[in-house]
Design brief:
This protein is of the alpha+beta class. The protein has helices at 2-30, 250-255, 257-340, 345-353, 358-361; strands at residues 78-81, 86-89, 93-95, 98-101, 109-113, 119-121, 126-129, 133-141, 144-153, 159-164, 169-172, 175-179, 183-191, 201-204, 210-212, 217-220, 224-232, 235-244. It is elongated.
Length: 362
């Protein structure tokens, strides 16, 4: 009995775990988390960051890095960046051209940036534009140092787009459907990524059915239709939102059909497990009832046999008593007859049946 109760508890725990896991899975599938923050393009970080120092090449005497022989002229190492100032847009990369000649074998070339928040430089001279501004990129080899000015320009926005929560029902191009009381976050996507605009303006077409905050929070207050417009200078985008009364639209049901199927399957599994437990409990009770009935029947049969045996013993005792009484009576009669000279009945009968002889005649 204890083992059966233990198994029942284990099955109930398994059912609860299945229910919780299914609900969590359904919630995660119905409400996915979407990251909307723009990320900076992945670019290998430069091996060397630094700032330009107050190094004045005019004070150098440019000694020779090699020791000339008597018949050889001194060789002066040459390090220079070819081309003038560099202009890049945010996110662009550029390989800085340079010349490096007549340095001793093993001389390393290193790159430095005066402001890594504006532009970074890799160990092989590739500059990556990060943010608007001016930055000095320098190359250093031995006692030589040369630099170039890099200007990172602000990106000009070419378009703005209203981005709405993916869970909102999409009923057509730039058309969506929400329910009264829903709160929806609208965000602005600037194209290209990294472009800067002076000001974003949100405009609500019908204030009788909804409210719209300056940061794009849309609250549906009544059934109806309204238009939401986003402006950024000469750029703009607009969407149409239809607000309905409470209830689940068919479009939402169809979009969430897979989640509904998951929930139905979980319910079916739970029902099957409960039915299995109930049937098992019924079978166990029936088995126990049959076993108890069998034990009662065997006990009744045993008692019946015991009572019959006792009854037979009671009948046998009087018969034995009567037989012993008759035997004692016969013995007394026979003894008396012999004492009186009278033959016993059996003896008389024996004599009568015996044939006559001459002795009997005399």
């Amino acid at each position: 009995m204890r083992s059966r109760n233990k198994r029942m508890r284990i099955l109930v725990i398994i059912v609860c775990i299945i229910i919780v896991a299914a609900l969590v899975l359904t919630y995660v599938m119905m409400f996915p988390l979407n990251a909307s923050a723009d990320s900076v393009p992945e670019t290998p970080p430069p091996d060397n960051y630094g700032t330009s120092g107050d190094y004045d090449e005019s004070t150098l005497t440019f000694p020779s890095d090699t020791t000339p022989t008597d018949d050889q002229e001194p060789v002066i190492p040459v390090l220079m960046i070819t081309g003038g100032p560099i202009s890049l847009d945010i996110g662009q990369t550029y390989q800085i051209p340079y010349v490096m000649n007549d340095f001793p074998e093993g001389t390393e070339l290193t790159w430095e940036t005066s402001n890594p928040n504006v532009a970074v430089i890799s160990s092989d001279g590739i500059v990556y534009a990060v943010a608007p501004g001016d930055v000095e990129i320098a190359a250093r080899a031995g006692q030589k140092r040369v630099s170039v000015l890099v200007t990172v320009n602000e990106l000009k926005a070419t378009g703005v787009t209203i981005v709405i929560d993916p869970s909102v029902v999409n009923t057509g191009p730039k058309a969506y459907q929400v329910t009264v009381g829903d709160v929806t976050d609208l965000t602005a996507q600037i194209e290209p990524t990294g472009a800067v605009v002076d000001k974003l303006t949100w405009v609500l077409g019908n204030s009788n059915v909804a409210t719209l905050s300056s940061n794009g929070e849309f609250v549906a207050t009544a059934a109806g239709q309204t238009q939401v417009t986003l402006s950024a200078g000469s750029l703009s985008d607009a969407i149409q939102i239809n607000i309905i009364e409470g209830g689940v639209p068919m479009a939402t049901i169809w979009d969430n059909l897979k989640y509904i199927i998951v929930i139905i399957l979980v319910i079916v599994v739970i029902i099957v497990l409960v039915w299995f437990l109930i049937q098992r409990n019924k079978r166990e009770k029936a088995r126990q009832k049959a076993a108890a009935a069998k034990r009662r029947k065997e006990e009744a049969e045993r008692r019946a046999r015991a009572e019959a045996a006792a009854y037979d013993n009671r009948l046998e005792v009087p018969e034995q008593h009567m037989a012993r009484t008759e035997e004692r009576t016969t013995m007394r009669v026979s003894g008396a007859a012999v004492g009186a000279g009278i033959p016993a009945p059996d003896d008389q009968k024996t004599e009568i049946e015996r044939p006559l002889t001459l002795d009997d005649l005399e």
